[in-house]
Request: fold
Amino acid sequence: MKNEDLYSSAHIFVAGIRVFEHTRSKQPSVDDLCDLLSLTLEQGNYICKKLVACGVIERVEGGFGTRLFIKDQLKIEEIPSGQPESTLEDELKEFQDSQKKFSKKIESFQATQAEKKKNMFAEMEKKLKEELEKK
Reply:
């Protein structure tokens, strides 16, 4: 599954679950599917995570480990076809952008807090001077 879109990968992944169920008479784990489909564990987990989020498959944790079940294969048709999966570089750039926005938000908050603190001390100093002048 090299450079395929999520739609195609989803069909292959679900087919792999069905083949594994048929040949082994049990539900596969992500490791089992990766072996069957010649995927790296990272690719398998990535596709699995996306399909769980879409509601296509379900991960069930039990005494014999985590197993995969087909929940609703018709939801595969809701996945846009022909769009390549986002690459790690794209996701990293998106993450870095969100971190920059978060940093700017923190800096803005700190600046407003510093301004409030400055104003509060100025007001306290003014009141103290007024009190001293009265005495």
